[in-house]
From TrEMBL:
Residue numbers binding Zn(2+) 2: 538
Required cofactor(s): a divalent metal cation
This protein's name: Phosphodiesterase
One Gene Ontology term from the biological process aspect of the record: signal transduction
Recorded family membership: Belongs to the cyclic nucleotide phosphodiesterase family.
Pfam family, one: PDEase_I
Residue ranges with Basic residues bias: 766-778
Biased composition (Acidic residues): 791-800
Amino acid sequence: MLNATVLPDIKAPKESFQVNSSLLIHPSVKTRFDPAEPRDKVELEEGAEEGAENAGGDPGYTEEEKSEAMVGTFPESSDFSIIYDYAQNYGKAIWAEETSVYSTDHGRDTLRKMGPSGASTIIRLVQKFPALEAVKIGKALLRNHIDHDLRYAIMTNSDRDSNIRHLMAIPLRDSDDVIRGAVEFTRTWNFSAPFPEDLFIGTVEDITFFANMVWRGADCRREVNTYRILGARFQELYVRPANWDNVLYKFMVLIKSQMNADRVHLFRMNHHDNIAVASVYDTGKFSKQGYHYDYSKEVTLPIKETFFRNIQYLDDSINVRHSSHAWIAQMGLDNKLPGPPVCNFLAMAFNEDWEGRACEVLLLVNSAGKDGFTQCEENVLRSLMSFCYSAMGTHYFRHRMSVTSRPLKLEEELFFKLCNENRADSVALGKLCDESFQPPEDFFTYDFYCAKYLVDDFALPGMLVFMLDTLFGPDGFHREKLMSFVLAVREGYRNIRYHTWPHGFHVAHCLFVILYTNANFLNILERKALMIAGVCHDLDHFGYNNSFTKRFSTAFDTLYTASHMEHHHIRETFRLMSSTENDILSGWSDGDKSQFAFLVKQAILATDQMTYFAEKNTLEHILHTKLDIDNADHRQRVMNLMMSSSDLVVSAKPWEIHRASTEDLYYEFHQQGDTERLYGDQPMPMMDRDNYPNMPKDQIGYLKHIVLPMFTLLATAIPNTAELVHGCVRNITAWEEEVARRERRPEEAAGANKEVQPSVQLTKPGKPKRLRRQRKKGNGGEQGDETPVQSEEESGGETS
């Protein structure tokens, strides 16, 4: 006999990703194998046949070596332990002198001889060794009188092989019809009777059935164990949202460890462009930090030219078990997918879009087993995918809930006051508005200013209702709810310095003058939207601009992407109007309400000067060519220009009013600059309190380069608004004269008070004052006219 070659064991990587997910423990197995433990190289010296000779004994491994054997690389040792015990007892029943159990070793021309405790040794065998031949051809072999058969004259150099006379070799198949090993029954010269044919047939049936039953049970236990693992990690992956920071990575690692796959990729299907893009790409590398996934690498595969074309719905899957399969050969997957060559893969739909088509596909590449991914592993993957799909759907729902609830909570915190005046206030305002109102002499000009009317809390609301009645009649809005809405708008402005209720009133008044003097310029719905947008355009303004809210990551940065303050004003406007008491659109059709809301939104957004600068060139081109008022786009751009100009109308008012309003505006600027300094930032020059002496020069530049060109464009579109241009030029001249005076008297500029005090103070009144009616007493009691008077306490408040 020739010498048998006993190979040293294979050294496993220090950190192996091939983890046996079944964790099957048979009572006969005394030790379990830890895949995380390093495995030292085991060398068996040539001639150490003693362990191989003991068919049912220990093949030469120490207890330490047994405990360090790598699980998942070879078939489950516990399964072979059960088969080994059964084969030994069966061999005694059929008078076999020796029974050996072998397992395949990754498809190489080697068999691993199994021992009673699952330990094994690798023996390289010649091609004609009966057990290896049975594994190769996939058929059971009966060889009697093997000593006379020259084909088996040379096997190994062990004494056991030289005494073999009769032999049965039976391949072992699992539930996927994959050969996992072989059982060999032998008789030596001590028992000269050969194995009968009928005994051979019965033995093949019994051994094959039992092995198949063992592996079916192992598959079931593996699936049950998968559920056990998912149950153990349910709290981590499903219930506690705090652990969802890397939820996708955790699921990918879970799937990879349970499936013993070399690489796991998640592809997102783009059916419109016919491509599948790997949103999570597995590099196949492993370190102490864990598996390496590349979220930046984009691997793109065509859908129609690859296996993705056959994965259209959520239950679709493709399992390619060998590299010679036509799927890989025809598609050239090796050339399209980076990494090691593709030997086998399993693809399964992971998620579906709103049309019911697969939108995400999980691709597992190169199973640890030589025969690809088994049916059991496919079932396990389906269980994992169902859990992941359900858990990620729940997580997405929670994420959307948090995304939705957070803005709502922020809005509740940001909204200053949603005030509906009581019934008595609304009724009192309604009575005043029903009476004849004599407007001031300058009411229909741009010079009108409301400072002296702030003594009466109902003066400005009454004037606003008068403007709406003049333009649209008493039935333009719901009359009773209009009174409540106007009072609620007044209370919606904060008690700051410039962006207050009077400022909103002045913007609405400027729009009123433009619309009153150009009655046929816009349709009725557009005119109504402009008036409501004008009075509400700075609702709940708190004294800071968009630059501040963006630079310092305020809550507005979470709620809105651009024009933070303008979007906030829009939201608060619609919140007021959504109240039943303030529903001024009551009775309107849904189409009119929708169009009105759109126009109001566009008008308030136009008060952001960045919007004006973005549209300036286009508007200039339209005005210098031909303005078509019937064109919806032209009309919308002119409406935006009207809003932008009305927001800056104070720049065209008489000098004393303009100067006082500018002081109020700079007071807010300096408050913002002080806040920016607290955050460690350097404010802009106009926000810097130390730069206040340069305020006249800054105003000259602002009026010349921003306000005056804006008013000029408006006068080009609407010629009778040229008064705004003249007023702006007049104020520029006044600022230039003040600069000249300061240059003549530099000591005044040096002694200028940095803490700005406004000459005209525009403050929001506190609690609305009631109108007390004094009746003239006649002969029969209280009769006669009613005259509104105020008590000393009511008239002792701040006035401007």
